[in-house]
Amino acid sequence: MNDSDLLRREARAQKNRENAAKLASLGITPAEASLFKVIDYGLTVAVDDLCYRAAHEVYAVGGPITEELTQAALASCFAKGWLQVIDEAAHSRIQEEIRQEGMLGPIYGYPSIGGVDFTHAGAEQWVRIMKHLWDRESEESSPYGDVVHEKSSYYFPSEAKAIIERDLWKECENVVAVSEPVRIGPWRANWWRRFSTGYRIDVEQRMQWQAHNADSQGSVYFHWRDLHFNRAIGSDVLNHHDMDCNEWFVLAEQDGRHYRVFEGASENLDNSDDATLDAEWARGVEACLRKGWLRHMDDQAIAEIATLLNSDSAITPVRPKPEQYRDKFAFTIEGAELYRKVSAEIFGPEWEDHLYVEVTYYWEEHRYCVTEAGLATFDECYHRTVEIPQTTRTVPIGPWCIHWWERFPSGYRMELTFGNKERPLQNE
Hints:
Elements: H1 3-26, H2 30-40, H3 47-54, H4 67-80, E1 83-85, H5 88-100, E2 116-118, H6 120-134, E3 144-156, H7 159-170, E4 175-178, E5 182-184, E6 187-190, E7 193-195, E8 198-206, E9 219-222, H8 231-240, H9 245-253, H10 267-270, H11 274-290, E10 294-296, H12 299-310, E11 329-331, H13 333-347, E12 355-369, H14 372-375, H15 378-381, E13 391-397, E14 400-401, E15 407-408, E16 411-419
Antiparallel strand pairs: 1-2, 3-8, 3-12, 4-8, 5-8, 6-7, 9-12, 10-11, 12-16, 13-16, 14-15
Helix pairs in contact: 1-6, 2-3, 2-4, 2-6, 3-4, 9-11
């Protein structure tokens, strides 16, 4: 760990100590605050799932906590009347409150039946935490988005997978139209992952109060947990290719996968502490660089990838941006080919059927804020790539709410459309 890493770690530890002290002054524990933070994210999940999520560092408010601490904190919150399990009676009661007050929303939707959510008293405690720790008095100037109409294309390596996904989409409440699978020519899911053929389906959805976001840049998804690692088979395959488990994990990380996805893949790593994992990871990276499977991304490497993409007629639903790898390391062509070959031998030739690409080409979005000026900060607040809308209109509104418990007497709604209603033609 270098000096800058140590400084960042100490700054984070100091901030945790300060937040823990502030929470103590409010009579709230860090574990209770972490439960609140999960719920504030719009996640009204079951008891076990809530405790599991709250123990994750992303929800930590006053420092790292364990799942055991969140379980004890949840019991305490129930006893204090801060949290409740949403049953049908509570769900109906909340909906009736919103209807009686004539409110738009909630933007994040109503809580799920069976999930844990705030009571009014608990919501008040969370507001106290936000104001005391993060000065969230300025929250009223924050904008919130809700996509209400969306058209997207989904790309798959095989027709069988496209048909399965088509049938699943047809069962979704929001869906108003799903196309039949259309065969396409050569395409790339990643800059290094090229298929000779594939299939596309188009999906149209209408929804409201789901705080849904559109992704015009596109995303590549892989259902890793559907793949099962057989240690005996995996070891034989890796040995055959003069590759150890750690080196394969480093290559798999380039595919957006973490080794812990495959429980039992490496007994040594499964039982290692963080320091050992860091050392093993560094060793694996060094080996992959030395063997020519990875390389540092300098100007020459970035230019070579750009040339490869520009000279290829294959469609690229998600246009790769080689410059995003600058000063990092990434696959070589040979490394990518070897990784795909080894993975196919471990998981079977259809392993990449668990992959799909999503691109949204048209959407209508409503943005809400207490102040009209706050609407203009949407892209900055959510670190969104700035999109140029086709149309826009701003109207004043009456009562509205983000969550059912976070309400405002008035505000503004900006109505925008992006993209083109007709799917862009590509070389398919």
